[in-house]
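Contributing new complexes? Match this layout with adenosine monophosphate.
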Amino acid sequence: MLCPSPRKGKHSKRLPRNNKNEEHDFYNKAQNHARNGLPPVRNERPVMLKYAQALKIIADHTGPLPTIELAPADAVGHVSAVKLESAMAVPPFDNSAMDGYAVRAADTGDASDTNPLVLTVTGVVTAGEKTGSAQAEAGTAWEIMTGAALPPGYDGVIPVEQVQVQRDSDGMPVSIELTQSVASGRNLRRTGEDFAQGSLLLDAGQVIGANQVMGLAATGTTSISVRCLPRIAAVTTGNELGDEQSELQPGMIHDANGPYLQTALDEYGAKNAGVFRTGDSADELIERIESLQPDVDMIVTTGGVSAGRMDFVPAALEQMGADILFHRVAIRPGKPLLFALLPDGTRVFGLPGNPIAVAVGLRFFVVPALRTMLGLPDERYLSAKLTEPMRKKPGLRFFGKASAGTDDSGNLVARVLPGQESFKISPLMQSNCWVIAPEEADEIPEGTAVRVAPTKPGTLI
Ligand code: AMP
Ligand code: MG
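Output block (do not edit by hand):
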């Protein structure tokens, strides 16, 4: 079964538009008054939201996606949509945890160094074999292998290393001598001890990975209900972006954001619906977005959302009839970030073009939207003590490229890396997390506990 095409409009809840101002008219006017193909520089500043306000707007315009039934191996990377009970008991039968001898505990009560007990070996059972139904007789034992079913009547296993074995000429055990008693239940794995039949196997909102596949396989689960993955396409914009195959012309740069998004969208839990590139052209962007719309839940653009002459993305979205729900958030890096709803319900994140603004936009705006669509709870970040002081601009929430690890006591510590400018990718390559510093902070001393988000959502550092 396939995920249905995104049903547009269904998940878009409209809010009172109290966060809007005249900026939208500005974009329209800018379009109409464009001279020489360039819109005028904007002289009005859109309202700047706090990060928490922006997250609220995103949450209010996003909802869980439909569910599909998938085989466990195909469900890896998906999120379970409903609670699932185990259809069977695991282990399905009492079995031995050791290679040794199955005994009747009651026979062994008096065995000791000074009073050794001899039991006659009357059978052998290996893993995968049937045991038969005959009840064990007093004074007997069965040779038993790890994972083999416990023959009826026995209720404990003594490991082979703890007995003296008398063997016949073929090497088969004839009798064993014990010098210790065996408690009932010793070295046994009881039926249903891991998964009782009907017990909770998978909760709603669990990410399916190898750990879950193991339990699903052990319980014979062939199909699970999971949320469809949000289909997200990305469009990088900029006349300066060169084709990675050919040599760069003067003034051009390689497109770092496209390949980043190509990787990160899948890695962060979305279904990558393609990554494209356009020049600084509203027409080109509109054409691309229109062609993507039927097949995606969300589009991420990079570049062209600031206040420069070439920042045409808001105007292009306006021209498409988009509702721009916010534009500008009090964060660093990535302040001019934009979130809009197209008339068909496609959500659009317009991220500024600087690569670190893109990484922050994806990690701290797109990922929360993704999690809502996947039916995951809000992410809870870790806490780490700073190993070095840091400075930030007050009034803006700061997301710093950082490296976290453990101190000598095993406690989490973090360091904000040098080179926090939003064009600098080299520290990002050395980072494994983000340090999140609150708006009001200015100078933050060494030893202060700060919030830390792992690079990849949902992982411990
Ligand atoms: P913009 O947000 O379009 O004004 O771009 C801000 C900065 O990011 C400029 O220096 C751009 O050249 C740079 N930039 C934009 N897009 C990309 C990209 N895809 N890869 C690398 N740098 C980019
Ligand atoms: Mg640009």
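Reviewers usually confirm one structural detail per submission. For this one: Residues 10-43 have pLDDT under 50 and may be disordered.
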